[in-house]
Amino acid sequence: MVMEGNAGSLYGRLNRASTRGFLAYVAAGGACAAVLACFVLSAADPTAAAGRNDGMLRLSSRSARVWPDLAFNWRVVVATVVGFLGSAFGTVGGVGGGGIFVPMLNLVVGFDTKSAAALSKCMIMGASASSVWYNLQVSHPTKEAPVIDYKLALLFQPMLMLGITIGVELSVIFPYWLITVLIIILFVGTSSRSFYKGILMWREETRILMETREREEQSKAACAANDVVIDPSYQEPLLTQPQPKEKSALETFLFNLRWKNILVLMSVWSCFLALQVLKNNSKSCSTFYWVINILQVPVAVSVFLWEAVKLCRESRLRRMNGNLECVCEASIEWSPAQLVFCAFCGLLGGTVGGLLGSGGGFILGPLLLELGCIPQVASATATFVMMFSSSLSVVEFYFLHRFPIPFAGYLIFVSILAGFWGQCLVRKIVHVLKRASLIVFILSSVIFASALTMGVVGTQKSISMINSHEYMGFLDFCQ
Hints:
479 residues; disordered N terminus; mainly alpha
């Protein structure tokens, strides 16, 4: 198809646009949040607040555990519907849906914030695992390659996991209102940027479809002018043209598997899990605790640098040989500056995921689009990376007894069904309509919905804390 043949160059052209405006927006938003934090902290009296509301201060940072029973009622029905839709659309967009799950589990079902975040990870893990299973059985829409870009997954996964660790620790000391402000700024920016890119893709797809129709009409008109008209359904080529061999489902599945890359990812996952278990079994703020924390940095950085050097060398060799083909789905020239930017975005995505209780896809999905990946590959790769990061958190939370097993099993089952059928339905619609921009619009909508829900919940809780005269500044990490 002409549409499929032009897809790679289409998204490459659109994503080569400058991102300085978006980066300026993020920097300005962060500066505004910092100024607001300084203003609030200067107006607050931490000593008086601590002496007056010591119990409230402790409760605001370490809330009591609340686990509702799993029973058939309207709360569970709402959680099922919202969880199914959030998992279906979240995995299609490659963002997971943690910004929707946490408020839903907290406000509707009644779980405390920490348990809601842990159950959100369970839902993200189930949905991403079923989506990865689906993506392993489909072919790349434009070329002979897996739809999951393993090179980008190896580049971002270690930094994302390191960022999640940082985000979880920052969530202990950051005031709730500041987390809300930062998330709203980031989510509104990424959703707006993704929506704008979706509009550009839609317009370009419309132009290509119109050109394709015009060529078909011209071809039909030329055929109608001939003396002999043959029904197109009975036309046979005069010379047999070589056709690409159609792969069976099993052949496609085996072709999409890259065992070497998967083993590396599993090794990184195992290292982080072992370090997290050791950290959780140690005394908070002890010497051993900080040593284990610091050991996560060389693990993540070494794997990132290993993959980054491979990408730089392969890109340089191809340019020297006159081959302009991309070394992976990202249509950029790999350089130290680009790699530093990717490392920063991976850390940022993981940090936001740790603060929010999501898998980091809210940053990784839009970032992969920004780097030039087509929507199908961006969604599949972001979901693949989220499967590792969310499953790591689920195993850690299981050892810490942070979620009820019956409720977690039920929500994982709902998310598995939603992730698979969501991918199946949306990919079929994209194939029929030849509109891959639909995936970008779904991604933008889920991020914006998460910003809306987190903003409402965060504002409500902040107002409640102000009315209760609770301390609104930074908390002590070691208390």
